[in-house]
Amino acid sequence: MSQPESAPPSRGAVAAADQDLSAAELEELESLLAAVPEPLEPLDVVMLDGFLCGVLVQPVLVDAETWLPHVFDAGGHRWGEAEPTVEQRRARALVMRRHAALNRALAEHGAFEPFLLEPVDGGESGAVEEHQPGADPVGETLQPWIFGFEQALQLLPALDELGDPEIASVVARILGRLPAPDTQGSPHAAAGSHAAASLDDAVDELVADVAELYERTLPLRYKVQAVRHAAPKVGRNDPCPCGSGRKYKVCHGANPQA
Q1: Is 148 within a domain?
Q2: Residues 253, 160 share a domain
Q3: Tell me, what's the pLDDT at 136?
Q4: Are residues 169 and 201 in the same domain?
Q5: Does some domain include residue 6?
Q6: Average pLDDT for residues 29-34, to the nearest whole number?
Q7: Residue 61, Cβ density class (10 Å: 0-12 exposed, 13-18 middle, ≥19 buried)
Q8: Over 70: is that where the pLDDT of 218 sits?
Q9: Which residues are bridge partners to 119 per DSSP?
Q10: Count of domains in the chain?
């Protein structure tokens, strides 16, 4: 993890390389992830979206090399050899584009559009996934996204280590949207478990909770460290600290590297 002396994403013009993924690029990324060879276990695009949000809400800026390998394998094993292929470079570029777009959306608008596979029987356009009768379509639709988010929290413990009860409550709400049978082993889910009236409501609530986490950790994530001097500052006309008896400006002050 790294915590550079930096500021939140600017509100300037978005460079072409930083724009969000188009529908065609999303499909391309999905195909690239699906083509990662066994025994590696890559995320799919829905889990990836939740995972990236889990990275972005951390109270520190996380270096890409810490989390990126876990996109292509749950265990963080390297995909391919030292020299990346064209496909590997393209997959990495698309993942980083989505990461940047999510960060910008949360920083500037406090909202984002999550990647989700919507249920066929939900009456929504673009539906691609069908659910068993009697199942919870809202919970099952959100499940892969939340699994990805939870995987990021397990990889990066800094959020939990804050020990902030308000942050823990928001995390519990997010993980509590998993279908009931899948929440039994989660330390957060019991406190936050609830059902939304509709998929749209559930997505709105999920986005709002992620935005709240992002906002709460923002001051920590972009905190500028004060420069601390190991010794008191020496004036130019003061005696040089080296003990030569000469003024600092004609001794070590004239040649600081000495």
Answers
A1: yes
A2: no
A3: 72
A4: yes
A5: no
A6: 96
A7: middle
A8: yes
A9: 129
A10: 2
DSSP string, 55-112: HHTSSSPPPHHHHTHHHH-TT---SS-SS--HHHHHHHHHHHHHHHHHHHHHHHHS--
Are both 248 and 152 inside the same structural domain? no
Determine the Cα–Cα distance for residues 69 and 81; give it in Å rounded to an integer.
Answer: 13
Please give the Cα distance from 78 to 237 (Å, whole number).
Answer: 58
Amino acid letter for position 249: K
Q: Which two tokens stand for residue 132?
A: 């068993």
> Is residue 39 reached through a cis peptide bond, with omega within 30 degrees of 0 on the bond before it?
yes
206 and 250 housed in the same domain: no
Domain containing residue 173: 16-221
Q: Domain check: are 65 and 118 in the same one?
A: yes
Are residues 98 and 178 located together in one domain of the fold?
A: yes
∠ Cα 151 145 89 (to 5°)? 75
Check which CATH number belongs to the domain holding 25 and give it. 1.20.120
Q: How far apart are CA 103 and CA 63, in angstroms?
A: 14
pTM assigned to the model? 0.73
Both 193 and 251 in a single domain? no
The residue type found at 23 is A
- Between the CA atoms of 53, 57, 61 and 65, what dihedral angle is there, to the nearest 10 degrees? -30
Backbone angles phi, psi at 164, to 5 degrees: -90, 115
Q: What is the pLDDT of residues 45-103, one digit of tens each?
A: 999 999 999 999 999 999 999 999 999 998 888 776 667 889 999 999 999 999 999 99
Q: State whether 244 and 211 are in the same domain.
A: no
User: What SS3 class is residue 50?
Assistant: helix
The CA-based angle 29-35-39, given to 5 degrees, is 130
Distance, CA of 20 to CA of 98 (rounded, Å): 6
